[in-house]
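As promised in the previous annual report, we have extended the structural survey to additional targets. Below is the entry for Cysteine-rich protein.
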Amino acid sequence: MKPSRIVLPLTLVLSANAGLIAYGICQTGCNMGAVACYAVAGAVFGTVAAPTAPAAILACNAAQGMCMATLCAPLLLIPFP
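The corresponding structure token record, generated without further manual editing, is:
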């Protein structure tokens, strides 16, 4: 019996999708910005309950959400060579 060969399309061999890695790096950047924003507001990131958060903390949360949604989420769709 002759062994069979698996043939991969050339595009799979020459490119890789690094979107997940870029997304993780981007999220780290957004989180670092949120930590700095919390520090300026006089709080520690992750320790303020949402119902009791002052307006400055709510603004930090909104900025972090916008960062992740507008800058990071599209990276999941872009294949990087």
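The two ends are 38 Å apart (CA to CA). DSSP finds three helices and no strands in the chain. These points will be discussed at the next consortium meeting with the crystallography subgroup.
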